[in-house]
Amino acid sequence: MIEHAFQENYTIFPHEIDFTKHIKIVNLYARLLTSAGTDSQLKGSGIDTMHQAGCTWVLSRIAIEIEKQPYQYDDITIQTWVEGSNKLINTRNFLLTFPNNDIAVRACSYWSMIDMNNRKVINLEGNEFVAKFPVNPTTAGIEPPARIPDVKEGEISQHTIGYNDIDYNGHVNSVRYLQWVLDTYPLEQFNQFQLHRIDINYQHEITYGATVTLIKQRNDNQHLITIKNPEGITLCKVKLVWTEKN
Fold it and tell me: Theoretical Cys-Cys bridge with 216: which of 155, 164, 171, 179, CB 3.0 to 4.6 Å?
């Protein structure tokens, strides 16, 4: 076990899988974020505690690399730990492994803390919530989350934000942006290709009822997607790297 890592075991159940009987990518992503939330809760920095203090964590960037997508009824172990922090960013890593210790997924994420009243970023140096997490400088073994360029032209699709998109902060849940992106692909894409790496940059929040526009640009196996609000402001940018299935 990685020192100072929170660890939990779980099984992939049928309600989490897609038509290939592997865990859906969005459910895999949700598992990562849930483990981070559980770790925070156990260390006294959970949602309710932070909200009472008028602050909350927000995810700014994440990189996920999928070595082997877990299958129905696979047993998985997830470990997550804080690599370190600076004035603005707290770096949290993830590692998912099978019982034989083969790696399923690696991930690296950047988090900021914001004041819920004015939505401004809080300085993390000397912060009481940050201090609750022991640091382990071990990386997840992947390149850090990338800066993704804006896409101005490409394939266009839209999505109107509904009840299922909204989280406890009253804004769109981080996982939903990736779900919108993946829903723009036909099933053939998932039959022929495997998602190897996902980079996501979160820039602005959005709330219930708005219609967002997704702009997708394909460059061979690398696809760039920008999600904009009705005023044309970029909310989120996604980079997907696909590999052909054997």
Answer: 155
Report which of 238, 145, 220, 230 is spatially closest to residue 184, judged by C-alpha positions.
238
Q: Other CB atoms closer than 10 Å to residue 102's CB: what's the count? A: 9
Same domain, 97 and 150: no
Cβ atoms of 185 and 223 closer than 8 Å: no
| Cα distance between residue 153 and residue 133, in whole Å | 42
Closest to 212 in 3D by CA, of 192, 184, 193: 184
Q: Give the tens place of pLDDT for each residue, 150-204.
A: 999 999 999 999 999 998 778 899 999 999 999 999 999 999 999 999 999 999 9
Which residues form the domain of 227? 146-246
Domain identity same for 132 and 163: no
Evaluate whether 107 touches 141 at the Cβ level (below 8 Å). Answer: no
- Rounded to whole angstroms, the Cα distance separating 92 from 84 reads 8
| Burial (Cβ within 10 Å: 0-12, 13-18, ≥19) of residue 4 | middle
Cβ-based neighbours of 129, under 8 Å, separated by 6 or more: 44, 45, 50, 53, 55, 113
* Structure confidence at residue 46 as a pLDDT band (50, 70, 90): confident
Are 74 and 155 in a shared domain? no
Whole-angstrom distance, CA of residue 87 vs CA of residue 162? 35
Residue with tokens 């912060």: 127
User: Same domain, yes or no, for 138 and 151?
Assistant: no
